[in-house]
Amino acid sequence: MAYITFKNMEEYQAKINKLAKKSKALCKQVVYDGTGVMADAMKEALRDLPIEEGKNGLPPYAPPGEKLTGVSTKQRNDLIDSMGVTKISEDRGYIYAKIGWDGYGSVKTKRWPKGVPNVLLMRSIEAGTRFRVKKPIVRQTINKNKGKTLKKMQDTTDQILEKEFK
Question: DSSP alpha helices (H): ranges in 1-136?
Fold first, then answer.
């Protein structure tokens, strides 16, 4: 936590007023830094997904009664490449950014001629399906890295306050 020392109240009040005028921009910087930490952790978790290759370079196929435990190398790379962070937004007093998946994978199927939607693949991994074992990497990554993200946001806040109150 940053500590503030001052000689007179007017000087302190002037610094607080100056800080208040650009508080939204400073809060956005803090959220941006925290989102970067979580996005890096999420990409690392995606790199650790188990690989299960299918035949002829296609994604794996689960015979009836069996479930997949992994994804193909192409699918894993598609998920890593398509993961992104939205612009910092503000809604009803909250400043936030979202991490998510966009676009289509490189593996085309009869049902998905453009490629399997990456968000659909990620949801099937996260929640499981009739042919895929549940592997909640998003939830686990968030829970595991929440403290590190908050620490980064606190450090950024401290740096900003220290710089402003010099």
Answer: 9-21, 23-47, 73-82, 118-127
Asked whether residue 98 is domain-assigned, the answer is: yes
Q: Which domain holds residue 143?
A: 39-152
| pLDDT tens sequence across 68-99 | 888 999 999 999 999 999 999 999 989 999 99
Contact at 8 Å (CB) between 85 and 63? no
How far apart, in whole angstroms, are the C-alpha atoms of residue 31 and residue 123?
25
Indicate the residue type of 134. K
Evaluate if residue 102 carries a pLDDT over 80.
yes
Q: Measuring CA to CA, which residue among 123, 149, 153 is closest to residue 138?
A: 123
The gap from C-alpha 43 to its chain's centroid, in whole angstroms, comes to 8
Half-sphere exposure of 94 (CA within 13 A, CB side): 5
* Strands of 2-127, DSSP E: 83-85, 89-91, 94-96, 99-101
Q: Where are the beta strands (DSSP E) in the chain?
A: 83-85, 89-91, 94-96, 99-101
Q: How far apart are the first and last CA of the chain?
A: 15
8-state DSSP, 51: B
**Residue type at position 82:** S
In a domain, 133, yes or no: yes
